[in-house]
Amino acid sequence: MKILIADDHDLLRDTLVMFLESQGDIETICARDLSEAQDILKKDDRFDLVLLDFNMPGMNGLAGMELVMKAYPHVSVALMSGVATKSIAEKALAAGAAGFLPKTLSAKSLINAVKFMAMGEQYAPLDFMTADEETPQNEMAEKLSRRELQVLEGLTQGKSNKEIARDLDVQEPTVKLHMKTLYRKIGASNRTQAALLARDAGLF
Prior knowledge:
- GO terms for molecular function: DNA binding.
- By secondary structure, the chain is an alpha/beta fold.
- Helices cover 49% and strands 12% of the residues.
- Strands 2-1-3-4-5 form a five-stranded parallel sheet, with helices on both faces.
- The relative contact order is 0.11.
């Protein structure tokens, strides 16, 4: 079984590889963003499953997933995320994704889900899909408002306050206010530390 894992979070990606390759019958290839994943697929598209991180560079929401699915219709493509909601998971499945994997899944559930999807079945964890709509499935995410999460995502992407304000269609002082609040909630003292904490928590 051959799996392509595309995720820009090094620790999570390496952990995923360790879990899967410990099975002995799973080979993994890794990419750090959508562009690198596409380059790999152009050279060799013989994968049983492609796992795409919802928040990595180049994804642009579900558009990146749909792009890969359209270019390689014979390959099963699944979405994984630490912050995506049930609504996003439902849209991904409706678009034809092989499945949706919250990053909070246990190692055993993850391995079973990957094998299930690689065989051509569709997977999404029942507890996630039946949870209250729009409830973040991440301990850090649960501390923050939706807007604070959006600001934090901008920080992890290295964007300036001005760029984040433009993306969210708000004033720059509003972004600064959200930053001050989210720093306090997650225990960060500056934007770099906040971005690192978010990465370590598997948020983006």
